[in-house]
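Practice problem: predict the structure.
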Amino acid sequence: MSFGPSPAGFGPPPPPPPPAWIPPTETERALAEARARGDRPAYYDVLSGVRLYYVMSREAYDAQPDRVHRVFTRDPRTGAERWELFTDGMLPAPRADDLVYSRASLRWIADAWNPQCPPTLVVNPGSPCELALPYGPLGTTDWSGAANRTDTPSTSMRLRALHVGGVLHGPVAHGLACGALLCVNNGSLWNAPAWHGHGYDGERRRLREWWGITTRAEWQYHLRNLLACEASSSVWEFALGLRRTIARDFGGHVDTGYWRQAVATVIRANSEGATVITEDGVTKTDPRPASETEARITGVQHLIGRITRYEARMRADGILDENRYVTSVEAWDLGRASKMARWGLGARFATLPETESALIRAGRAAALAYRSWPDFSAGYILGRCLHFDEEEFGDWYQDMVSAHRILMSEAGSPWLNIPFR
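Answer:
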């Protein structure tokens, strides 16, 4: 059946309008707003305060890591050569091919000009916050004044999230949230499993200098140790585990003097030698020398003093509730495992599925070891301080206190939006 021709002016319905652009982070939102207003000084101010990324050749860097390996492109409309720059919310997921990124400041980009460089920089090409900038010797461009105001962008001690492409709920997000203290401390995106971090060269350098990692196998070894909570001192967990046992047996409160005495009793008993059953039969272990045993007792009792003093300070700073104590420092390993999973991806020692799998494992292990995000945080902070701080209560401690407070108070915090268990 036909109803005849459509009335004049009526035809097939128009296609739906394209979805509105959602800025991935607050950086792209601020750039888009400044561009829409035509406010170049404001645009430059945003650029000067954030980290920028540019394409580099992975093959060239691997061959000569002490040199800069910029890759320039051509404008698809005019064919003119240009240097493309990206903010962190505009980066694609890391790939296994030669396409990698390096990170820089606007000041470094201004200083890096030479006569072989293209005449144009393009920030976030193809997006509503795109802007082309002239590129020339320092002092000859209108944006160079903003570049000179800062050498190292300060985006640290901020809770930042990726609103497009990030993960906000589920097991991967839980594992990402285990690394949120470091993310806030460094001003990095807490919920971005597709990690670029310091850029390919920066992530390689980080792993080499801090962990001695230069290969995929070494990265896998350290990640396994962190996920198994075997990277930190076993003495720390021995002391805390003994206190947990005493608390369970005696109703919660543990007198520090009794804890010290119990340590001495257990260490002496373990030093007397024992009968061990192995696959090869029954083996008798020799007793340890008395001097070694007493030195071990002294060392662990000194550790107890450090633990209790850190706990007292954490109570005063609101990290621990009154009459609460740290049950374990496994969070120190698991929080670093959450970050190690991402660092490995940034350095291309891992794939994105491997990173997400490790994040899920870190989150599950944390939920087994602790009851809440504050408990996890206290364990992480104590482990970090035992490792680095030497009771100075300096930046190693203070930075984590600031990050903890942000995560326990800001509305967008994963610790307030993702159930710990």
